[in-house]
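Q: What residues go here?
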């Protein structure tokens, strides 16, 4: 938001007239130069002397109602060493002036690098209206870079953290004509938010941009590829209505970053996640129970009955599965979370008895829940219409999928009602965990609820994570070992909600590829995390356990049994043939528990190292997972120490040979997947 610029902005910095240009320096492999128009260009020192970006266009600029301000005459510059909660570093503050349509705009760019984060630079621009009349701002842009193409079937690979109703892949190949906006606000009635990072990589280097604020921002990170294969990225804020910058006021952009790196988005997101944690965003350690396998009653859909749930317990227990999830269908309505007495004639006491029975069977109980949602006809909305989020049109914001209303996340009434609901589930009924579900959880639009006291409507966007913090605190107060799962149905989960869950989920993947690419992202961002590959019935062929297993994901299923059950479909039925397969994989999972072990995402570059390869290391044994429709040739086993390793197909119990650091290649033939372990001889 605008504020009066103050002299303290330049405290401890030496200000000098700027007569020499350009400025340039190197931080790790990141080469930075600033020309006399205050364009900040970057290159990679590791790109084998070939340019990585064009480096010639304006990189940070301002779009007004009448002009686009790209060029600013530098008149001041200063630099100094500094230290903060992240560590020691160097800061540059560079100023310049532009004149347009009777306006004088001063641009102040602050650049920071940290010793602990080589190859990465933070940037924030400020624009001061030094004229005597307002300027109407339409957009600010940071890190506008054009990446040169490479000779390949694609011009690059990319990570794009947008969430839309199409539930697109987060990892995409780039080809001429490609465009994606990557807006971090609402993109559809139910969909928005995500991970505010765009990463584009080639075989030997990549570039990522994003913001490092600790709460959601309504920015976009568009990616476009022209006919010649040049890829343009940036991070920007576009105002729905022109933003009036009064005389003497300052518009600050969000603090953003650029990162040069080797490898793919795993490397970029790992650096980004580490930086966020250094700035104060804390990801919780996973509970031991978060790594235990799971069965969910959703195979029976919403018409599930109590007898159907209880009747499946023997098969669940026989597979060694520890979690039982009671899914959608138990409640009176979205928002009215007491039990539906048509299904639970004994009322809430009967739900508690079901949880007690699950515990008596030696298993844990999880309950499905759609927080932040309430049906328009629900009792809670009829009694408390003030709980609803009100959009810019003055109407309740609909959640199309549930045919429900969004609740106002920052409103004290909503928070009180939500805490009471958590108490019902966990203290009164005794559930051990919560499966928070729904794409609507990932983001909210600005909230014009008058009960908020006239605060900035965008505060709701920034405060949404605090809604989940309230749930987290209440659940942990009741049960310190509570499992809190965030399952935002097909969206790229908002990184700002991640501190308030301890099990990430593949979240309704459309295929096995999404199971793997999402797991790679979560393991990069969070580090040690329990990643649930979701129900295996959502994977390729409805039985691709290997995609979850090979990346170190927790296994889960929603099978139904027995066949005589009238609600069973062939899709979910645990036939005798499937039961043998399920037993094989769940026994292997419980024996290996790779979901607890370090994921070595830095060893292979997605999109360029073929076949697609993932590695989980358990002690001195490396577990390799290879994926391809068909493969007949050599695979390279990276990450080996100076030892001789025996290689074994541990799924089929077949020894394939030996490899070493000096000779790491092994000829193999497989279809779909091959899971190997290499252990020192």
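A:
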């Amino acid at each position: 938001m605008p504020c009066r610029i103050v002299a303290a902005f330049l405290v401890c910095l030496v200000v000098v007239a700027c007569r020499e240009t350009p400025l340039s320096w190197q931080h790790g492999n990141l080469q930075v130069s600033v020309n006399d128009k205050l364009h900040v260009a970057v290159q990679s020192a590791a790109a084998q002397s070939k340019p990585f970006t064009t480096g010639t266009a304006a990189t940070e600029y301002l779009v007004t109602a009448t002009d686009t301000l790209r060029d600013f005459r530098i008149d001041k510059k200063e630099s100094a060493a500094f230290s903060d909660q992240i560590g020691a570093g160097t800061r540059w503050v560079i100023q310049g002036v532009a004149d347009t349509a009777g306006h004088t705009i001063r641009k102040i760019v602050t650049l920071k690098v940290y010793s602990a984060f080589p190859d990465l630079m933070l940037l924030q621009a400020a624009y001061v209206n030094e004229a005597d009349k307002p300027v109407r701002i339409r957009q600010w842009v940071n890190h506008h870079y054009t990446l040169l193409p490479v000779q390949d079937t694609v011009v690059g690979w990319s990570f794009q953290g947008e969430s839309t109703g199409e539930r697109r892949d987060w990892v995409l190949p780039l080809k001429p004509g490609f465009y994606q906006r990557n807006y971090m606000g609402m993109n559809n009635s139910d969909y928005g938010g995500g991970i505010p990072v765009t990463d584009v990589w080639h075989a030997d280097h990549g570039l990522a941009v994003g913001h490092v604020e600790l709460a959601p921002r309504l920015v976009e990170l568009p990616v476009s590829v022209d006919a010649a294969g040049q890829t343009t990225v940036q991070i920007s804020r576009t105002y729905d209505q022109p933003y009036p910058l009064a005389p003497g006021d300052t518009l600050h952009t969000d603090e953003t970053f650029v990162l040069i790196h080797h490898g793919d988005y795993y490397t970029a997101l790992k650096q980004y996640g580490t930086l966020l944690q250094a700035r104060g965003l804390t990801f919780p350690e996973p509970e031991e129970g978060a790594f235990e396998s799971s069965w969910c009653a959703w195979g029976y859909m919403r018409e599930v009955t109590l007898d159907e749930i209880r009747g499946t317990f023997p098969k669940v227990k026989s597979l060694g599965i520890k979690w039982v999830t009671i899914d959608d269908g138990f409640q009176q309505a979205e928002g009215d979370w007491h039990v539906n007495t048509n299904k639970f004639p004994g009322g809430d006491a009967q739900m508690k008895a079901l949880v007690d029975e699950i515990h008596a069977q030696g298993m844990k109980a999880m309950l499905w829940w759609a927080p932040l949602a309430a049906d328009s006809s629900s009792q809670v909305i009829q009694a408390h219409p003030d709980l609803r989020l009100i959009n810019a049109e003055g109407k309740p914001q609909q959640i199309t999928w549930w045919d429900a209303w969004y609740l106002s996340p920052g409103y004290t009434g909503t928070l009180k009602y939500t805490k009471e609901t958590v108490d019902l589930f966990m203290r009164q009924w005794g559930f051990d965990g919560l499966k928070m579900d729904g794409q609507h959880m990932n983001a909210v639009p600005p909230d014009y609820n008058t009960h908020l006291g006239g605060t900035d409507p965008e505060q709701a966007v920034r405060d949404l994570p605090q809604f989940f913090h309230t749930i987290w605190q209440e659940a942990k107060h009741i049960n310190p070992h509570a499992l809190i799962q965030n399952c935002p149905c097909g969206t790229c989960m908002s990184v700002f909600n991640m501190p308030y869950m301890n099990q990430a989920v593949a979240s309704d993947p459309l295929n096995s590829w999404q199971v793997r690419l999402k797991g790679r992202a979560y393991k990069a961002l969070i580090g040690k995390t329990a990643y649930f590959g979701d129900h295996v019935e959502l994977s390729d062929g409805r039985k691709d356990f290997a995609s979850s297993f090979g990346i170190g994901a927790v296994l889960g299923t929603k099978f139904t049994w027995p066949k005589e059950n009238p609600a069973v479909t062939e899709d979910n039925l645990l036939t005798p043939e499937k039961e043998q397969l399920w037993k094989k994989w769940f026994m292997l999972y419980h024996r290996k528990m790779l979901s607890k072990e370090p994921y070595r995402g830095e060893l292979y570059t997605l999109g360029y190292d073929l076949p697609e390869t993932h590695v989980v290391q358990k002690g001195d044994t490396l577990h390799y997972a290879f994926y391809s429709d068909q493969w007949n040739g050599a695979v390279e086993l990276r990450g080996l120490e100076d030892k001789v390793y025996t290689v074994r197909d541990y799924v089929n119990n077949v020894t394939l040979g030996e490899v070493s650091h000096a000779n790491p290649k092994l000829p193999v033939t497989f279809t779909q997947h091959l899971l190997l372990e290499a252990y020192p001889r």
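A: Context that may help when evaluating the design: Residues 506 and 534 are 6 Å apart (CA to CA). Residues 1-20 have pLDDT under 50 and may be disordered.
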